[in-house]
Amino acid sequence: MKKAAILIMGFLTVFYCSAQRNDWAAVEKVFGKKGTVQGDVFKISYPRTDITVKVNSFTVAPGLALGSWVGLMSMNKNMGTGKIMQNDQATMMGDLVLLDTEVPSALKKLVEAGLTITAIHNHLINETPNVKYVHFAGSGDKVKLAEAIKSVLEVTATPLTAPQSAPQAAVDWSGVEEILGPGKYSGMLLQYSFPRKEKLTESGMTMPSSMGMGTGINFQKNGDSAAITGDFVLLADEVNPVIKILIDNGITPTALHNHMLHDQPRLYMMHFWAVGNPENLAKGLSEALAATNHQSIKK
User: Would you indicate the residue range of the signal peptide (predicted)?
Assistant: First the structure.
């Protein structure tokens, strides 16, 4: 009987995951490649593999800081609004990584497509060539939203198909993971996402961490050193304590701004950059996280 129950649960899990994937099949057809599904959120990324960006003399991997992304969250549930939406409705958020010369045409297309521009700014400093980040939002039929943002991507030089990835040697991140907890491996990168403990909303809808509401931290190994970048998602009273902690640990804040227009509580994104000993940098980041209301991912 117990074995049968386990088999049934396994079947239901596979069925549920398959149903989740099928919910986004039409969206994936628009984008022309697979995304990832986490709960009600579909996410797809477009790394800028077509450009070589350096910060000072450090070559930035596309996955470190040069990935455009689109997140679509199904609105078929309550989502904190008190309304039950149709299954094809979604809210969309994301940001585009653009060269300066691409910004005007991308903005024009976003407006023509009926999407909302929520921020235009830098994330890095001292980078060559200069890179800007355009954040956007929208809501409505999820396939039409996908078509709209795809039309914006098409007026840029962003590669729209997944690049072939060359095999890379394994990187030992054990020292960093001992400090920050287990991360996600991607080639020479180690990536983290730390959710905040508060309920976060945008335009009245509850937003999960996977919709760009969590603090993201990325490491890129280079010999015995590593570059770090990402953004802390902060409340107003946390901003300056975190700035001090980062500076005291040799980490440079590179931008402070908002990504959204109607978020509650009001959130401030602080981007940062440093190159140095990975474990020392991890200790500084851990100290900064401890000064905020983030969830720990350490086991």
Answer: 1-19
Q: List average pLDDT for each run of 10 residues in the chain, which is 299 residues long.
A: 48 44 88 94 97 98 98 74 66 98 99 99 99 98 98 98 72 97 95 97 94 97 97 98 99 98 98 99 98 85
Place of tokens 């009987």: 1
The three-class DSSP label of residue 64 is: helix
Virtual CA dihedral for 286, 287, 288, 289, nearest 10 degrees?
50
Domain extent for 39: 23-158
82: left (phi over 0), alpha (psi -120 to 50) or beta: left
**At 56, which CATH number?**
3.30.1460
Cα 126 to Cα 174: distance, rounded to the nearest angstrom? 30
For residue 154, the tally of other CB atoms under 10 A from its CB is 11
